[in-house]
Amino acid sequence: MGLKSDYVREVKAFQPSPPYAANAVKAFLVGGTLCALAQWLADWYGGTFAAPPLEAHLWASMMMAGLAIVLTAVGKYDDFSQFAGAGATMLITGLANAIASAAIEHRSEGWTAGVAGQMLKAGGAAVIYGLIAAYVLGLVWP
Amino acid sequence: MKRVGKQTWVFDDGVYIQAAAAAVGPLEADGPLGSYFDVCHRDLYCGEATWELAERRLMREAVDCCLQKAGVSAEEVDLFLAGDLLNQNATSNYVARELPIPFLCLFGACSTSMQTLAAAAALVAGGLADRALAATSSHNATAERQFRYPTELGVQKPKTATFTVTGAGAALVGRAPGRWRVRAATIGKVVDAGLKNPLDMGAAMAPAAADTIEQHFRDLGASPGDYDLIVTGDLSRVGSVIVRELLAESGYDVTDVYNDCGLMIYRPDQKVFAGGSGCACSAVVTYGYLLQELARGTFRRLFVVATGALLSQTMVQQKQSIPAIAHGVVIEAAGREPDLPL
Amino acid sequence: MEYVRAFFVGGLLCAIVQLVIDRGKWTPAGVAGSLVVLGVLLGFGGVYDRLAVWAGAGATMPLSGFGYWLAKGVMAEPRPEGFVETGAAVFRFAGALFSFIVAGSFAAALTCKPKG
C-alpha cells in the first residue's frame, strides 16, 4: 500500500486535522463573551429607556453588528475570526462582517455593480434562506 | 536544442538568463529572503488605488528592473511571455499594453513562472527570438477576492491553506552569455489526483510535481544527486512532504536536495498557514534568491519545478476536482556547469 | 446570573457549530444558512421564545437568533394574514437588523478601503 495506490484515501494521513478541541474551546469562550456583552447592552438599554426585552435585545444585536462593521472597516475582524472561528462568524456579528466585507471589497468596482451588487455575496445564504423559510412558514402556519 | 525522452527539452547550445528581478509586498520583504528582492513595498497597495493596480505595478517594476539590470531597452526585446492568476491574465495583458514587445500570454496557474521561462528558452534556442522576457505576478488580495472571499471576511482557514505571495518576477532570456544557463526544461502533464478542497492545494498539486520530477529523471537518466537543489514552487508544508513520499515510492530519494519555495519565502512565525503559494512564490524565490546564490557559488545546478493548481472557482462550486500541473527548468551557474548525463 | 446563562448558551452553540464546520463536510456559508433556518423553525415552534426568555442574548445573538427575529415577526400578535401582510411581517423585527447592517456596511464602504 502506498500513496499512489489510492491517493485520495491515503493522502489523508498527510493532511493535518483541525485542532477540534482547541477550536471548540475558543469558539465557546469568545462566542459566550460576545453574548454576555450583548446581554449587558440589552439590560442597559432596557433599564435606561424602560424598553421591553424584545426591543432591548434587538437594539443590543444592532449595536454588536455595528461594532462588527467598524472592526471590519478597520481590517481587524478577519484576524479576530481566524482566532475565534464560529465564536465570531456564527453570531449576528458574523453576518454583519460578511455583508460589510463584501461591500468594502467591491467599492473598487463602483457603487452599483460593485458595492450594491456584491454586498450579499458572502452573507446572502443566511439572509435569503431565513427569509424564504419565514415567509413560507408564515403563510401556512395555523 | 533537442528533445530527450518524452517531455524534456535540452538546450545544449547556450541559452542564458541575462538578468532577473523580483518585486515584492510587505510580508515577503519582511521574510527571510527580503534582502534578495530588488523592489520591496511597505504597503500592500504598492501606492496604487486598487489591489489589481498594485499587482500590475509589481509586474511592471519587475520588468523594468530586469531590463535595467541587463542594460537592454524594451525595444531590443523580441518577445514578452507573461501570465498571472487573474481572470483573462489581466495583469499580464495590461503590462504588455505598455511595452513595445510582441506578446504571448500564458496561463499555468502557479506554474506560470517556469512555463514562461521554459517557453522563452525554447523560442530563443530555436532562433525565433534573440531576447525573450518572461514575467509572472500574483497578489495576495487579488487572489483572495477572485478565488476565495472578500479580504476582510472572517473565515477561519485550516492549517492546510496556503498564503498567496504578493510579488512579481521577471527574467530576460537570450543567446548572449550571461551568468546563468538554462540547461533543460521538462514540460508537465495535467495530473488530477481527485482532490476537491481549494484550501488544501499542496496535496492537490503534489502528484503533478512528482510526475514531472520523475519524468525528468527518466528522460535524462538523471538522479537526485545530480542537482544541488530541487525546489518545488508552492507545495507548502503539506504538499512538500507528500511529494517526497511519492518520489520515494518510485525509488527517488530527494530528501537531501529538496526544498519548497513556499516554505523558503516566509519565516515560520509569519502567519501564512501552511506556507506561500501563487505565481510569484516560485518566481521571486527563483529570480531573487536562487539566481543570486547560483552566481555566488552556493549552488551549481538547480531544478526548479513550479507547481500550479489549475483552480477555477466555478468548477470547484460545481464539485469538480482540481487538476494540477508542474513545469521544471534546470538552471546552472554559467561557466561552472557540473558534468552530467544531460 | 443572566450573564452566565447568556455566556453559556451562546458559547455552547458556537462550540457545537465549530465542531460541525471542522468536520469539513459543510461550508461556513452553508452552516450559517442552516443555523438561520433552524432559528426560524424553532421560532415558529415556540421553543425559541422560551430560550430567548431564559438565555437572553445567548439566544438572540447567534445567527439562529436572526431566524428567530424573522419568525417572531410573523408569530407576534396581531398575526398577519395573507401574502401581503405576511411578507411585510417577516421584516417587522429582522428588518431593523438587516436595514442597519446594510446601511452600516454601505457607510463603511463609503469611508474605508479593504486593508487586506
From TrEMBL, chain A:
Q: What are the TM regions of this chain, as residue ranges? A: 20-41, 56-74, 83-104, 124-141
InterPro entries reported for this sequence: SpoVA
Q: Which domain of life is it from?
A: Bacteria
UniProt keyword annotations, A-Z: Membrane, Transmembrane, Transmembrane helix
User: Which Pfam families does this chain map to?
Assistant: SpoVAC_SpoVAEB
Q: Name the chain's protein.
A: Stage V sporulation protein AC (SpoVAC)
Q: Which organism is it from?
A: Geobacillus proteiniphilus
TrEMBL record, chain B:
What protein name applies here?
A: Stage V sporulation protein AD
Alphabetized NCBIfam families for the sequence? PRK08304.1, PRK12404.1, spore_V_AD
- MF terms in GO: acyltransferase activity
Question: What SUPFAM superfamilies does the annotation carry?
Answer: Thiolase-like
| Species of origin | Geobacillus proteiniphilus
Q: Which residues cross the membrane?
A: none
TrEMBL record, chain C:
- State the superkingdom: Bacteria
Against InterPro entries, the record matches this protein to: SpoVA (IPR005562)
Membrane-traversing stretches: 29-48, 53-71, 91-112
Q: From what organism does this protein derive?
A: Geobacillus proteiniphilus
PANTHER family per the UniProt record, alphabetical:
STAGE V SPORULATION PROTEIN AC-RELATED (PTHR38450), STAGE V SPORULATION PROTEIN AEB (PTHR38450:SF2)
Which keywords belong to this entry? Membrane, Transmembrane, Transmembrane helix
List the Pfam families hit by this protein, alphabetically: SpoVAC_SpoVAEB
Protein's recorded name: SpoVA/SpoVAEb family sporulation membrane protein
Keyword NAD belongs to the record:
no
